[in-house]
Design goal:
This is Membrane protein. InterPro entries: ECF_substrate-spec-like. By secondary structure, the chain is mainly α. It has one domain: Arp2/3 complex 21 kDa subunit ARPC3 (Orthogonal Bundle). Helix content is about 75%, strand content about 0%. It has seven helices and no strands. The protein has helices at about 5-20, 35-40, 50-65, 70-95, 100-110, 115-120, 125-155. It is globular and about 50 Å long. The N and C termini lie close together (about 10 Å).
């Protein structure tokens, strides 16, 4: 895929993540939304750094629409975590380990990503937030898995293939 198509596709997935940020999932801590689903889908089409950027932009949009409830620095850290989650997932997709990529995003985003709150804020925050984030991650993964085959078919018609 040439550079222009890569940038346009990255912008498309980032824009979809921003749109998803407005569809909130009503569980604690209050910021989970469908922003991750487009980022997870982007793992199948974009190189890891570009998919990671789409994921980070999606989280920043979600936290912005929620008013940065955990403060801007914390949400920047979470956006960096999201970039790592999606970037590694895209790398695994590129290596042909699609099932492992889905397991990775589910566990890393739902269980490992909130782990720093255990030490930064308190163990109680981690215990309160992790189940909701795991549930929100599961919803985003299911949405991504449902959308991916349809999007793959449409993008293939326009000459864009999965990695």
């Amino acid at each position: 895929m040439n550079k222009t198509k890569t940038l346009v596709l990255t912008a498309l997935f980032a824009a979809l993540a921003v749109i998803g940020s407005f569809i909130k999932i009503p569980i604690p801590p209050g910021t989970p939304a469908l922003d991750a689903a487009p980022a997870f889908v982007s793992m199948a089409f974009l190189p890891a750094p570009f998919a990671a950027a789409a994921g980070a932009i999606g989280h920043i949009a979600t936290s912005f629409t929620a008013g940065f409830p955990l403060t801007l620095p914390i949400h920047i850290m979470i956006a960096a975590e999201m970039a790592i989650v999606v970037g590694v997932g895209a790398y695994l997709f590129k290596k042909g380990k699609k099932a492992l990529a889905w397991v990775w995003v589910a566990i890393s985003n739902g269980v490992l990503a909130p782990l720093p709150f255990y030490w930064i804020i308190s163990p109680a925050v981690y215990v309160a937030v992790a189940p909701g984030l795991l549930m929100a991650t599961g919803i985003n993964v299911v949405v991504a898995c449902i959308v991916l085959p349809f999007l793959q078919k449409k993008l293939a018609q326009s000459g864009i293939k999965m990695i």
